[in-house]
Amino acid sequence: MPHFLEKHFSDCQFERKTPIYKKPAGKRKQGVSYGYGKTGKSLAVQIKERLKTALDNEAPCHLILVIDDLDCRDKDKQTQMFLEAIDTVAGAAAIKRLIGFAAPELEAWLIADWDNTVAKHVDFRGCHQAMRWWLSHDKNIPFDAPESFSEYDSDRDCCFEKLSEALIASTEQYECKEIFSKGEHTPLLLGQIDVDKLSNKCPIFNELYNGLSTYCGNVRPN
Fold first, then answer.
1. At residue 30, does pLDDT exceed 50?
2. What gap in Å lies between CA 108 and CA 202, rounded to an integer?
3. From what superkingdom does this record's organism come (predicted)?
């Protein structure tokens, strides 16, 4: 994500405060808690801690940017939760803030621009057509509207089905050169996205992109 932001919003300088560590490459082991990144309520709690430390000990910032996986939750409620978390931190009141979401996960952006991302990567070049067919027919992922994938599971406070897990499964299904990795492939492929390809497919992405464009003075021409 930092590389994506730097590429498209070069007039702004970004400094990540959470997660501190990158997600590990490769497949996660079942039953192991990695703790590399928080989301939802856990992220809101972490924001209070990290933001206070940053404002107390580091140079002042001009924008507080929060980007989270929406994971089929209610966007307005999640936005309000993060704004309230920021408001609890002394010194944050005068700082602009922008709350954005990847819906349901960052991998939706890759799905929306499949030809420039997954299809071109050397690990999936030989199997991307079969992957796409399986994802669209067996998993019912709408490639023209990937943000609408799955529904909210109130028992687990997330989507019934994870888009990233479906993407991983598709690479296992067709014995691609490598298994898809959120830690390795997602950050790399985000840098290959043509944002104009997402404009008609991902309205929630558009809100984030346009908000940052306005702030950074880098608005796309109509």
1. no
2. 8
3. Bacteria
Query: Is the previous residue joined to 19 through a cis bond, with omega within 30 degrees of 0?
Result: yes
Measure the CA–CA gap between 56 and 90, rounded to whole angstroms: 9
- Alpha carbon distance 181, 166 (integer Å): 12
d(CA 199, CA 194): 9
Contact status, residue 185 vs residue 174, Cβ threshold 8 Å: no
Q: Please, are residues 122 and 176 in contact by the beta-carbon 8 Å criterion?
A: no
Q: Which two tokens stand for residue 55?
A: 């404002």
CB atoms within 10 A of CB 13: 11
Quickly list DSSP for 2-39. HHHHHHH-TTS-----S-SSPPPSSPPPTT----S---
Residues 59-85 pLDDT 10s: 889 999 999 999 999 999 999 999 999
User: 195 near 8, Cβ under 8 Å?
Assistant: yes
Positive or negative torsion for Cα 102, 95, 90, 5:
positive
Whether the per-residue pLDDT at 128 is higher than 90: the answer is yes
Q: Are 183 and 26 in contact (CB under 8 A)?
A: yes
pLDDT at 109: 98
pLDDT at 180 over 50: yes
